[in-house]
Amino acid sequence: MRPDALAIAALVLLTVSAYAVARALYLRYQHPLVQPVFLGASVIIGVLLLAGRSFEDYRAAKDVLAWFLGPVTVALAVPVYKQRARLRAAALPLACGVALGAASTISAVLALATLAHVDESVLPALAVKSVTAPIAIELARLQGGEPSLAATFAIVTGTLGAMFGPMVLNRCRVTDPVARGIALGTASHGQGTAAALLESETAGAMSSLAMAGAAVFTAAIAPVYIPLLLRLLLP
Amino acid sequence: MTSSFAATIAPVLPLSAGVPRPLRLGLRLAGQFLLLVALSYAGTALVQATGVPLPGNLVGMLLLLVLLRLGMVRLEHVEEAAGLLLTHLNLFFIPLAVGLMAWGGLLGASGLGLGVSLAGSAAVCLAVAGLAGQRLARTAGASDAA
Description:
The structure holds 2 protein chains of 2 kinds. Chain A is an all-alpha fold. Chain A has helices at about 5-30, 35-50, 55-65, 70-75, 75-80, 85-90, 90-115, 125, 135-140, 145-170, 175-200, 200-235. Chain B is mainly α. Chain B has helices spanning about 5-10, 20-50, 55-70, 75-85, 90-100, 105-140, 140-145. Chain B is extended. Classes of the chains: A mainly alpha, B mainly alpha. At the A-B interface, α1, α2, α3, α4 and α5 of A face α2, α3, α4, α5 and α6 of B.
């Protein structure tokens, strides 16, 4: 089936509207259930299911909006550049926190998924779940994983980190705003950064640097590290 | 150096005073957006040409960082469009999350295992990055500087 331009435009408009409503609710209530990605996607899935449609009917609209992730990722250079002075002051904790965090989370997710007997074909997409979705898509493709699945895992990870990350950090007695920002950005990319920004400007700035750092670091080690782990974990 | 090629792409041109303000803002945003799009495609082309195993859009981001650093692109050539896109970052994630419905079978079969793996590994990452960052930030005195 080849959806016409009008149907695509209607679905894009529906997505933008669902986002606008969810964002307004989130700015007001900040409850996990009105988190814009969670609520927006739930509304659209609901509408599609009620109309008896499948994801295939939505795919063209998805492609239109997903195209924007290219320029959006490039735009991430702007906050990083603006915070370059702060980057110099916190370079060591940032570099070590990001490298250790990113390496440990790749190992942990693959080990846990293997223990839980998750299907092997899913593992490459799962391994890159801590980087921001547009980059996770590309990394998964390079690792022979399924791009849309990688995006889904990245978004679930981002939502989980935004919802529960601050709580985990309190439990671990991480009180320093620089360290909290590093942890949230490394673990949960953009959505973690949004949560860090709610805590303090310092945490938010460190988090966006950590998010970019985690993406670069993960992209750099992925071609060697992920196949190595998979060989160790899978019989 | 500062007014090199970016100035010709991004319309920071002195538009005639007769152009209404909203239209001027719109044109400026469109020009800045086109620069971001061009860099994204440049990153992809660079990756295809060199075969470096990096995502094209990530290379585009590094490219912009280098251009800003060299002064070939100035902050005002990209700042407004970048800010607008990043404010509404979540919008572009929604269609990807809708893709979840295509994986209903997989999630039914191993949803619990996947959930535990994702949540557990996120907690590990938060603890490791947070504690390492905190220890080093204190020794480096970065927390006072920030």
